[in-house]
From TrEMBL:
Organism for this UniProt entry: Amycolatopsis rifamycinica
Residue ranges of the TM segments: none
Record InterPro entries: Acid_phosphat_B-like, HAD-like_sf, HAD_sf
Keywords linked to the UniProt accession: Signal
UniProt keyword Ribonucleoprotein, yes or no: no
Recorded superkingdom: Bacteria
Keyword field contains Signal: yes
Signal sequence range: 1-27
Pfam family, one: Acid_phosphat_B
Name of the molecule in the record: Acid phosphatase
Length: 254
């Protein structure tokens, strides 16, 4: 996922959850006219945040910090999706030459939920940088297990993230500390000089940057079996046998 988003955009996808609540409430309005008017209203932002917290099984620690629960629907959904992806990868072993998996970082390899909730689902680039520097984000356990399972079987693991190149060294250190295998390659969005394989240069959209980088990975001889991401823009553009969409109702990135 990209390192830049706005507080308004962040909850756009989650608003679909709140919309159900908002439209359901119109049944109590008492008139067809009132119902019609209310059904056109956007989702209540406060209700959306509560729905997102419920999805993650939100709880507070002694210091008042937010965390997600291991028994939450988020974890159950993630486990199911990653288990299906692992089965597919296992089926391809021995069939595909030089198999590889590509992993996004934010809300794919790592979960940012606690930090997001602590910041009321708003984005501050300074606070994000501090979180990366401090190793605040936690490993997404099913993805961590998949990455190590794959690496132990000779599958190359690549990280491909919208975090910028200056955030690369600390990000890789955090991922290693969390237990991720050493990657065959790690790609961070260029800020100074774009590589030749990205003709869009420093103005690439997320889809152009990520699909172009996957094309580059395959040009080196690897075959991407799985491409995991929490945004559809992580997955569009091809160059993967199976794109794997992980749940993230907190924000949407085109």
């Amino acid at each position: 996922m990209s390192g830049k988003w706005s507080g308004l955009v962040k909850l756009a996808a989650a608003a679909a959850i709140g919309a159900t609540v908002a439209s359901g409430a119109t049944a109590l309005a008492g008139s067809d006219e009132s119902t019609a008017a209310r059904s056109k209203e956007p989702a209540n932002i406060g209700q959306v945040k509560l729905d997102v917290k419920a999805y993650y099984g939100d709880y507070l620690d002694a210091a008042g910090k937010h965390h997600y629960s291991d028994t939450s629907r988020f974890v159950k959904d993630t486990n199911r999706i990653v288990s299906d992806a692992k089965r597919f990868l296992q089926q391809q072993l021995g069939r595909v030459k030089n198999p590889a998996v590509v992993l996004d970082v934010d809300d794919t390899s790592e979960v940012t939920y606690g930090w997001e909730a602590d910041n009321d689902f708003g984005f501050d680039p300074v606070k994000q940088q501090q979180a990366i520097d401090n190793g605040t984000f936690v490993a997404n356990k099913p993805v961590l297990e998949l990455a190590n399972w794959a690496a132990q079987r000779g599958v190359k693991v690549y990280f491909l993230t919208g975090r910028n190149e200056f955030q690369g060294p600390r990000s890789l250190k955090n991922l290693a500390n969390e237990g991720y295998p050493a990657p065959a390659g790690a790609f961070f969005k260029p800020k100074t000089t774009a590589p030749d394989y990205l003709p869009c240069g420093l103005t690439c959209t997320t889809v152009q940057y990520k699909s172009g980088t996957r094309a580059h990975i395959e040009a080196t001889g690897a075959k991407i079996v799985l491409n995991l991401g929490d945004q559809f823009s992580d997955l569009e553009g091809g160059y993967a046998l199976r794109p794997v969409k992980l749940p993230n109702p907190m924000y949407y990135l085109p």
